[in-house]
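Researcher: Quick test of sequence recovery. Tokens follow.
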């Protein structure tokens, strides 16, 4: 088995971060599973394996429903990180059945298709206003002026967070999400802990206010959601709200800028989209496949598994490479080509199995709204300069995307 370091897989190398896809091709060519010493993880690059493992109940986002840290051969997190882990570990993304099943069922009662559909006019109008402002100014940073404010405002509106309180949401989210990168530093952990405390304190006050005066919002819905004797605890409500905010905009923000940068680098595809707006739905799926905002998703091995003759023992951690899986030629014809007309597109950018993204329908509405507004109001949109990539691997995005109009 070749060492991944010999294959060009280096998630801290700017050249790799700029374009990881050739390294992924090397990983797929060399085998189905690779040990990566720097993070003590098994890398899984093939679509079939990633898709199967996302549904395999021998793996879990947590192991604490079955084992203690000691039984699992792991150390407990440092006590000073506790506020982050309390917040993170009570959200359904990092829980397994039966807690995951209970919380997702209750959240689904508040996060219904009707609730999401009711937001469609708000999303469309807000996207139109943001793009109109960008056009009026002759351009600007697509990230800060359209891609970011749209999903942050939408999820804040959905949760019932007043406009005056929304300023810290994006910084809190960015600091918390720093902990999802590989081998985060102590400085990153300290920022995540501080943001976890501040965000939790804010939501605790908001929940108390909604208990006294319920509204037509998701926080009120989470308070009211129950099934027989089951209710969400206050911590579960706080963790759910933070998860929905973080997941509900990080992916959309990065999908937007990654997608437009891909379009700018593929002018024939952009011209086809401008000529035929009916391509928008398939374009969104293809852009999410082509340069997914979530490159890696981790799972703990709860019971020994075998991949291609390699036994991966209980206690190990698997890193499923979504970016590689989405470029697997065994599944996607000519995967390195951006093809907005692609119809067979089983990308896994929204994950799969019990942890499939509950907000996927809302993300698609937001991406379609901003793309439609930009195509209609800014038909000559073009890049003003080459963007810088964020120095992140797991959550892939740009520092900004300067554009010109007119």
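Model:
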């Amino acid at each position: 088995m070749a060492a991944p370091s010999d294959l060009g897989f280096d998630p801290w190398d700017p050249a790799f971060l700029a374009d990881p896809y050739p390294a992924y091709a090397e990983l797929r060519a060399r085998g189905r599973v690779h040990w990566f010493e720097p993070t003590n993880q098994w890398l899984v690059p093939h679509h079939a394996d990633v898709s199967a493992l996302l549904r395999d109940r021998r793996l879990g986002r947590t192991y604490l429903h079955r084992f203690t840290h000691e039984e699992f051969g792991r150390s407990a997190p440092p006590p000073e990180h506790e506020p982050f882990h309390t917040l993170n570990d009570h959200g359904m993304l990092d829980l397994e059945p039966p807690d995951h099943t209970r919380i997702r069922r209750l959240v689904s009662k508040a996060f219904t298709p009707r609730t999401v559909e009711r937001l469609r006019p708000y999303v469309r109008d807000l996207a139109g206003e943001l793009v109109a402002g960008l056009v009026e100014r002759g351009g600007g940073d697509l990230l800060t002026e359209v891609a970011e404010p749209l999903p942050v405002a939408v999820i804040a509106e959905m949760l019932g967070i007043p406009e005056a309180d929304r300023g810290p949401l994006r910084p809190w989210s960015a600091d918390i999400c720093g902990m999802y990168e590989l081998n985060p530093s102590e400085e990153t952990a300290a920022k995540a802990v501080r943001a976890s405390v501040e965000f939790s304190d804010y939501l605790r006050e908001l929940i108390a206010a909604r208990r006294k005066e319920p509204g037509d919002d998701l926080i009120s819905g989470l308070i009211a959601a129950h099934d027989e004797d089951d209710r969400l605890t206050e911590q579960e409500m706080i963790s759910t709200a933070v998860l929905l905010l973080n997941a509900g905009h990080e992916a959309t923000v990065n999908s937007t800028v990654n997608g437009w940068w891909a379009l700018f680098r593929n002018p024939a595809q952009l011209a086809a989209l401008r000529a035929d707006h009916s391509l928008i739905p398939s374009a969104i799926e293809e852009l999410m496949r082509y340069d997914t905002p979530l490159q890696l998703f981790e799972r703990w091995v709860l019971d020994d598994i075998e991949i291609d003759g390699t036994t991966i023992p209980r206690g190990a951690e698997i890193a499923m490479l979504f970016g590689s899986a989405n470029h697997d030629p065994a599944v996607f014809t000519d995967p390195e080509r951006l093809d907005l007309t692609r119809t067979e597109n089983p990308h896994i950018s929204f994950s799969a199995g019990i942890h499939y993204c509950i907000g996927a329908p809302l993300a698609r509405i937001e991406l379609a709204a901003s793309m439609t507004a930009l195509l209609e109001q800014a038909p000559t949109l073009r890049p003003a300069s080459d963007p810088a990539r964020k120095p992140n691997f797991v959550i892939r995005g740009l520092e900004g995307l300067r554009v010109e109009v007119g």
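The two ends are 54 Å apart (CA to CA).
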